[in-house]
Amino acid sequence: MNDAVTQLDPALVQRFAEIVGDKYALHAPDDIAPYLIEPRGLWHGRSQLVLRPGSVDEVSRILRLATETRTPVVPQSGNTGLVGAQVPDASGRQVVLSLSRLNRIREIDVQSNTVTAEAGVILQTLQQAADGVERLFPLSLGAQGSCQIGGNLSSNAGGTNVLAYGNARELCLGVEVVLPTGEVFDDLRKLKKDNTGYDLKNLFVGAEGTLGVITAAVLKLFPKPKGREVAFVGLQSAEAVLALFGAASARAGSALTAFELIGKRPYDFTLAHATGVVRPLEGDWPWYVLTEISSGRSAEDARALIEDILSAAFDAEIIGDAVIASSLAQAQAFWNFRELLPEAQKPEGASIKHDISVPISSIPTFIERAEKAVASVSPGARIVCFGHMGDGNLHYNISRPEGGDDHVFLDLYHAMNKAVHDVVRALDGSISAEHGIGQLKRDELIATAPPMAIDLMRRVKAAFDPAGIMNPGKVI
Fold it and tell me: Exposed, middle or buried by CB within 10 Å (0-12, 13-18, 19+), for 29?
């Protein structure tokens, strides 16, 4: 890290502070510290000022002043991102803009099946508000108790329900965005059909705060399912998992709302290290699937459908064992097991993580080729593979060899990334399925994406942010 810190002009700091009021302009190192580091601890930035605006007008005034004075701004929501997009650099010159006070749910329109929420609304709060009016907001993440809607949209978050409902981009109908100039782009519309020119909202969703600041959005709601069944399944191979997915999709269609793949190693890590978990199946299997069926008709319909899928899979010798949750509590326990997988890897030492996607049909091929690629870089490294099989997104993590040295293993970070990502690209996949680019994958994106794609992204960036103040050093 560069130790040279550029001090902002005290008079400029005061001008920024006056916009939000002294109470919401953080200067003290202890107050600022939580905003400077992300969950994995890979990046630790510096800043002299964290601003916590309470209105769109305050955000507008902050960005207008930032453009006028060429002061870089780093937008931040719940600070749960995993690629460093929300962390300032080491210069000390960047101002952190926290959206956490913009936390109102402005409207729930039951007839239109929409909710209008501000950027600082916590995802779980929005889920609960929808539930209160017999609706479902389906975006579901492990960090849903602290992540915020602005960050979900800026990173185009995915999660466990993408299979049936789509990612954050597909759940968004309209946005309110403050541009770097301070102008407000108000596109908070509820239309599911709108062919009037360019779809501007989708430039901001997934842009990681590099084009403007999302301050509110109109999001889709869905009727709550009347029946929901969850099953844990044991299988012998990745090919069997793919066969089960094909059979379940054919029988259930849109009622198949989740299909999560879990390798034996993350399964074993969770049994060993997570608190309060119970072994879902009696026997051990090379692969596991956590799947969910949701019915808009009845609980009986959901039960009959999942039993039909599993019975047919047993008869075809696709699966080796399965258990259907016998209660809501057991269903939640199954899902809790899945959510604890990432944390359960930590006690096993240093890890190198990948958030990749390939065509669903290529997943067994990816698993086979990537295993060889990992062994070529670090013999004995332990593959921790799990993820959203139903949409082709795997969290392909690599733990250091048992008894190995953390620092020695992490020195292989770039070599391991290249080895795994080369397999991904050979299968026409993506090196970032749902976590974004941020700082972690910026250089690799620039080095490996088609030059025309990078050129077009830079043109878009220059058009929206000619002063270069919006989250510099991220994405491109």
Answer: exposed
Q: How many CB atoms lie within 10 A of CB 446?
A: 16
Cβ–Cβ < 8 Å for 212, 185: yes
Mean pLDDT within 50-79: 97
- Radius of gyration of the chain, Cα coordinates, nearest whole angstrom: 23
Find the helix or strand (DSSP H, E) in which 439 lies.
none
Residues 249-255, mean pLDDT to the nearest whole number = 96
Cα–Cα distance, 396 to 77 (Å, whole number): 26
Q: Over 60: is that where the pLDDT of 1 sits? A: no
Q: Sort strands 95-98 and 73-76 into parallel, antiparallel or unpaired.
A: parallel
Nearest Cα to 395, choosing from 380, 410, 385? 385
- Token duo for residue 470: 């919006």
CB atoms within 10 A of CB 228: 20
In the chain, the N- to C-terminal Cα span, in Å, equals: 20
Tokens of 137: 């907001």
Tens of pLDDT, residue by residue over 280-292, are 999 999 999 999 9
Question: What is the enclosing helix (H) or strand (E) of 424?
Answer: helix 413-426
Q: What is the rounded CA–CA span in Å between residue 334 and residue 267?
A: 12
Token pair 């090196």 in the structure block, residue? 431
Q: What is the pLDDT of residues 197-241, one digit of tens each?
A: 999 999 999 999 999 999 999 999 999 999 999 999 999 999 999
DSSP 380-401: T-EEEEEEEGGGTEEEEEEEPP
State how far Cα 258 lies from the chain centre: 16
Among 119, 105, 224, smallest CA distance to 168 is for 119
Handedness of CA 319, 321, 327, 331 (dihedral sign): negative
Residues sharing a CB contact under 8 Å with residue 145, sequence separation 6 or more, in sequence order = 122, 123, 124
Looking up tokens 């019915």 gives: 295
What is the percentage of the chain residues whose pLDDT exceeds 90?
Answer: 94
Amino acid at 217: A
Please give the backbone phi and psi of residue 210, each rounded to the nearest 5 degrees, phi first.
-90, -10
CA dist., res. 325 & res. 280, Å (int): 9
CB atoms within 10 A of CB 3: 6
